[in-house]
Write a structure and sequence with these properties.
mainly alpha, Transposase_6_like, IS402-like_dom, Transposase, globular
């Protein structure tokens, strides 16, 4: 499947400082799992619909959930946004953020704006 997303070696090197330390047995391949998490989120897929090349869907979900709860992804975004001065610009793609489809209708029903 040629349309899969894979983090590059350079991207992984930039993200590495934000990874939590592994305790006990080593984690499965970080590049594979993080690339899968990004692919699932970018394409608005269910975890179980992730391509098999990224590994088990349960592994993707568990890593996403555990690292989200620990704030790992938030620290990654903050760290990348405040990187060293030699980087001229840092762009974070927010096109995949979505508002719930009922958010506007709920506001209107409660007598908010537009009502």
């Amino acid at each position: 499947m040629s349309n899969l997303f894979w983090l590059t070696t350079e991207q992984m090197a930039r993200l590495q400082p934000f990874f939590p330390k592994s305790h006990g047995k080593p984690r499965v391949d970080d590049r594979r799992v993080l690339s899968g998490i990004i692919f699932v989120n970018r394409n608005s897929l269910r975890w179980r619909d992730a391509p098999k090349e990224y590994g088990p869907a349960k592994t993707l979900y568990n890593r996403w959930k555990r690292w989200s709860d620990k704030g790992v992804f938030a620290r990654m975004m903050e760290g990348l946004a405040t990187e060293s001065p030699e980087r001229k610009t840092v762009m974070i793609d927010a096109t995949y953020l979505k508002a719930h489809r009922t958010a506007t209708s709920l506001r209107l029903k409660k007598g908010g704006a537009g009502g």
